[in-house]
């Protein structure tokens, strides 16, 4: 199948000393993976048709959508649907979501960095246990604990606040974050720690001046990851908040179903608007996200 | 590497366990403690407002005899099995393809990625519109599939197939990436050696790529299993468990019992059962992939 390994593959792995790479042997041209190429082409269609429907529908008026159906080309494109959505409560939902997303990413990064640093560098049974705790946590479905989380949030008198969404969402993004960062930090050379320690650097300084800069790629991945999770979170907001003041985008979308029952272009425009910010961020942080996701699998 | 195992490894420059405590406690508070509490609540009768009342094994014996629950477990297992069977071949094919060199990868991966970036809610709304029997494409799709009813989501099989398809549509890119990462780590020399021995592409795939992806397959499988056991947003928006209870999988049943019927004690028993299954899957992940052995990914390269 594929016989080439991308030189840029996996930032961490590519630091490996491979010696001098022998010059590419002239007789061995990369063989094309026809089956895979065909599959990718089919998948492209499967992905792109619904996305086309999504965008094309939002550019129509309500009436022309109902008359012509989802596959029609918008003959007279209009942004009315977007105007309808943006003049409603959408901006407030967007603001709430931004707050939740930023807070979750900040908490996840801070805690995951310190935890991973300790896991990688502390040689004790306890640190191994903590790593196992997070690995187990990978598989705890948030649905399974939503009832006690609801109880805890109510007891803390946080019900129907943004904090009610932020705290559990951040907690549940920790396992993946720790897994990613442990993977990154494992590859830092022992000598670097030693020379800093010999210079008399404190643990805090080692963390801030060695570990954090070297793990930048992993940290951005964690940021993107936890932000994505928080942005798209639905269950925690659904159960832990109630009033329009604390409503986030996903919940707002869910409510639009009732509000825009017959205005499908507006409904789908809200869907598009909810994807645009995260898609823009993705275009900038693409490499981070992809490397991070690829690292999850291991070999 | 050897240095770390050496008994006289320097102890200077090592942080204490204290660095891990805040994060671990925070996680335990919102994920660990709730696991214990949900177990406790499963032995109580609780409507969410008054205090939980101890009711012994009532919920559990009820769970054992509940036909709705039996149906939900069956549907969840069926969904999990079909998810694995349909998605694994696709992601294996696409992931290995994407690990190779090909043009336009940036553009393609951006397009493939949109479903992964959007929330389940947004995607479920999109598909609900597409599957709408009056204004959507449902009649055409039903025609194509040879279904009698034009109302795809209104038929039991159609609704179940829709859940399977929409969740697959959303998560294939994620697993594709995991496989892409795994395939890229296979040492190139393996393929060189195989070519010299005269092995063709197909043989190379089955004798090198597939065995080398063993851990990737395990990881992806467990993530698929845990994922499929917990699909919820899509079901809530696309089918609301219906028609009848044709798509009422375990998490949906739990939500329905707990937060619609306010029978939180019984819902806790359902949730506990879910935790047990998901944790078993996770243990399998840890065991089979040897993540805990703290091996650097560099080794063996």
TrEMBL record, chain B:
Transmembrane segments: 21-43, 72-99, 106-127, 159-179, 264-286
Principal subcellular localisation of the protein: membrane
Domain ABC transmembrane type-1 residues, every copy: 73-285
A Gene Ontology cellular-component term: plasma membrane
InterPro entries on file: ABC_transporter_permease, MetI-like, MetI-like_sf
Membrane topology of this protein: Multi-pass membrane protein
Subcellular location: Cell membrane
Gene3D superfamilies: MetI-like (1.10.3720.10)
Keywords: Cell membrane, Membrane, Transmembrane, Transmembrane helix, Transport
GO biological process: transmembrane transport
PROSITE patterns: ABC_TM1 (PS50928)
Pfam families membership: BPD_transp_1
Family: Belongs to the binding-protein-dependent transport system permease family.
Identification of the protein by name: ABC transporter
Organism: Streptomyces marincola
Upper taxonomic lineage: Bacteria, Bacillati, Actinomycetota, Actinomycetes, Kitasatosporales
């Amino acid at each position: 199948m594929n016989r080439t390994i991308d030189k840029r593959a996996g930032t961490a792995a590519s630091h490996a000393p491979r010696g001098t790479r022998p010059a590419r042997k002239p007789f061995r041209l990369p063989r094309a993976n026809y089956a895979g190429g065909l599959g990718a082409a089919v998948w492209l269609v499967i992905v792109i048709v619904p996305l086309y429907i999504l965008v094309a529908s939002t550019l129509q008026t309500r009436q022309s959508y109902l008359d012509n159906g989802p596959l029609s080309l918008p003959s007279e494109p209009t942004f009315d649907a977007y105007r309808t959505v943006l003049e409603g409560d959408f901006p407030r939902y967007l603001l709430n979501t931004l707050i939740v997303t930023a807070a979750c990413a900040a908490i996840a990064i801070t805690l995951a960095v310190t935890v991973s640093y300790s896991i990688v560098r502390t040689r004790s049974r306890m640190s191994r246990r903590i790593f196992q705790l997070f690995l187990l946590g990978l598989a705890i479905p948030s649905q399974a604990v939503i009832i006690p989380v609801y109880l805890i949030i109510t007891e803390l008198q946080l019900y129907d606040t943004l904090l009610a969404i932020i705290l559990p969402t951040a907690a549940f993004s920790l396992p993946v974050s720790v897994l990613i960062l442990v993977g990154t930090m494992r590859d830092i050379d022992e000598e670097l720690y030693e020379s800093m320690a010999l210079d008399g650097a404190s643990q805090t300084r080692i963390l801030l001046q060695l570990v954090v800069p070297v793990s930048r790629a992993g940290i951005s991945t964690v940021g993107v990851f936890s932000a994505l999770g928080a942005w798209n979170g639905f269950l925690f907001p659904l159960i832990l908040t109630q009033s329009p003041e604390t409503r986030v985008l996903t919940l707002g979308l869910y409510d639009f179903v009732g509000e825009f029952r017959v205005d499908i272009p507006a409904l789908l425009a809200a869907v598009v608007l909810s994807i645009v910010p995260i898609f823009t961020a993705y275009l900038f942080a693409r490499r981070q996200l992809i490397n991070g996701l690829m690292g999850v699998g291991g070999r | 590497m050897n240095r770390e195992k050496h008994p006289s490894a320097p102890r200077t420059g090592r942080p204490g366990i204290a660095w891990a405590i805040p994060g671990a406690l925070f996680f335990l508070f919102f994920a660990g403690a709730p696991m214990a509490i949900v177990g406790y609540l499963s032995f109580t009768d609780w409507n969410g407002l008054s205090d939980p009342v101890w009711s012994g094994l009532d919920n559990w014996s009820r769970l054992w005899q509940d036909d709705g629950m039996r149906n939900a477990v069956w549907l969840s297992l069926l969904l999990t099995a079909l998810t694995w069977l349909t998605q694994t071949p696709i992601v294996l094919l696409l992931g290995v393809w994407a690990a190779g060199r090909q043009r336009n990868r940036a553009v393609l991966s951006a397009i493939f990625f949109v479903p992964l970036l959007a929330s389940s809610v947004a995607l479920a709304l999109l598909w609900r519109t597409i599957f709408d029997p009056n204004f959507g494409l449902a009649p055409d799709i039903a025609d194509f599939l040879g279904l009698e009813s034009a109302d795809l989501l209104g038929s039991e099989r159609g609704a179940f197939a829709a859940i399977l398809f929409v969740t697959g549509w959303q998560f294939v890119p994620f697993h594709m990436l995991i496989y892409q990462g795994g395939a890229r780590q296979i040492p190139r020399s393996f393929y060189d050696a195989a070519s010299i021995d005269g092995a063709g592409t197909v043989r190379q795939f089955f004798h090198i790529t597939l065995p080398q992806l063993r851990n990737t397959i395990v990881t992806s499988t467990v993530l698929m299993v845990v994922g499929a056991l917990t699909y919820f947003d899509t079901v809530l928006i696309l089918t609301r468990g219906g028609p009848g209870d044709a798509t009422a999988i375990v998490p949906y049943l739990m939500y329905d019992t707990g937060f619609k019927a306010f029978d939180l004690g019984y819902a806790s028993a359902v949730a506990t059962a879910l935790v047990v299954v998901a944790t078993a899957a996770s243990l399998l992940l840890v065991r089979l992939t040897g993540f805990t052995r703290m091996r650097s990914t560099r080794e063996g390269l």
